[in-house]
Amino acid sequence: MDGAKKLKEFVAGVISAIIEKNGDFTCAAMLVASWIKYMTGKDEQGKEININDPSKDIFIPLAQAVTEENGYDTKSFNTEAFGENIGNHEGFNTAVKECLASINKNGSK
């Protein structure tokens, strides 16, 4: 099972439960932000990395479109990955944006 399929199957339910309970998105958002960073196809030094995921042709362009210039807008990526309910959730998208901005500014370590 590829990463995109695993995340949709195993993580979407967790995110939906957090939405239903109006809970804290921090951990789920960091997971998704890390996946978005990976799916850009570049490591933290800007070197190309091989993406081994059958859905890479869908997710690489979506991940590469999430940039500082557009305010780390993750809505399209999250909608494709998890469906409309999660993709359109402002609170979750904001949490992912903040985590991705932190990864890009401070690194992942």
Fold and architecture overview:
The chain is mainly alpha-helical. It has one domain: Orthogonal Bundle (N-(1-d-carboxylethyl)-l-norvaline Dehydrogenase, domain 2), CATH 1.10.1040. It has six helices and no strands. Helix 2 packs across helix 6. The model has no long low-confidence stretch (mean pLDDT 93).
User: What would CATH call the architecture?
Assistant: Orthogonal Bundle
The percentage of residues in β strands lies in: under 5%
Order of helices and strands: HHHHHH
Which homologous superfamily in CATH is the superfamily?
A: N-(1-d-carboxylethyl)-l-norvaline Dehydrogenase, domain 2
CATH topology: N-(1-d-carboxylethyl)-l-norvaline Dehydrogenase, domain 2
Average pLDDT, rounded to a whole number, is 93
